[in-house]
Predict the structure of GNAT family N-acetyltransferase.
Amino acid sequence: MNYSMEGAETERLLFRKLSRDDFDAWLPFHEDPRSSKFWSGIPQNPIAACSQQFDRVFERYQKGLGVMFALTDKTSDKLVGLCGLLIQVVDGQEELEIGYSVLPTHWGKGFASEAAQKCKETAFKNGWANRLISIIHIDNEPSKKVALKNGMHLEKRTVYKNNPVYIFRIDL
């Protein structure tokens, strides 16, 4: 299953496949040090970090492991973020995660919450999962707020990819 959000829409956003042409539009995410301040293991060089992320996205497309989709503003057609449903293994258990990232110029506008809610609704409506998680660094307050607004509750604290994280969960 690919958990595709392609073509999904919210009031302000359109989900579409990420393409290599989006690289320059997404690069400012990695150029802003606030974007990666919570997560270790990301290359310091913004171009290397962006390349690594794009490589992972396209590998996920190929392997059907769920993927982050480009979020574009329906009014301007500009890229505002990435969001999608991702197969993750947390503490030895396979989970379906709602992942989201928004360009710093669009922080605080509700785009992450809007996109995450659409992912939740789509996953449950299509029967893709009975429960969903979000993996959030313990110090990332804005992402915690998005998870809570999406109806999730804090399930546990654990370590994921050498980072201290909270697992937020919502059940169908």
